[in-house]
Design goal:
22% helix, 6 strands, 4 helices, six-stranded antiparallel beta sheet
Length: 156
């Protein structure tokens, strides 16, 4: 496969990555309004759609959908790990050890744990990235081990 055109000229190529490389994102505050808006459209369950409806549920109050946390994480990753050809996922493992709540200020911290070049296409590699989404109290709201496809910088 030919190396795709960059989606961000200032982004990282495979040549710029190394095992052990760490990154930290900016922060994003989660609001009650955002939780309800996301859940109303994408995950309409009572513990996501309103504080009153959430009382007495497993969570004991309003919490963000895990998919909302994942979407925020993706948004933060785009700038924290600015891949030149975009973040192209090839699978992974996703966990929500605790639910995100209104007032959480989320950030992502991660590390590149493995880079495996393709034998048939040595200009590309699978890059394993492990990251956590934490709030301002360092409570882990999401963990992810993702496989990303990366390409080496094309010759000029």
């Amino acid at each position: 496969m030919t190396t795709p055109a960059p989606t961000r000229p200032d982004g990282l190529w495979l040549d710029d990555l190394n095992e052990g490389m760490t990154f930290v994102s900016d922060a994003c505050e989660l609001t009650t309004e955002a939780i309800i808006a996301f859940a109303t459209e994408f995950d309409p369950q009572p513990f996501h759609t309103g504080p009153e409806a959430a009382e007495g549920t497993f969570f004991g109050g309003l919490v963000a959908s895990g998919w909302h946390t994942a979407a925020i994480t993706m948004r933060l990753l785009v700038n924290a790990l600015p891949m030149a050809t975009g973040i192209v996922g090839g699978g992974g493992e996703l966990n929500w050890p605790s639910a995100a709540k209104a007032g959480d200020i989320l950030r992502v911290e991660g590390v590149v744990t493995q880079i495996t070049r393709s034998r048939s296409h040595p200009e590309q590699a699978w890059v394993v990235v492990e990251h956590r989404t934490l709030n301002q109290h360092d409570q882990v709201r999401q963990t992810n081990i993702g496989r990303l496809l990366a390409w080496q910088r094309p010759p000029i």
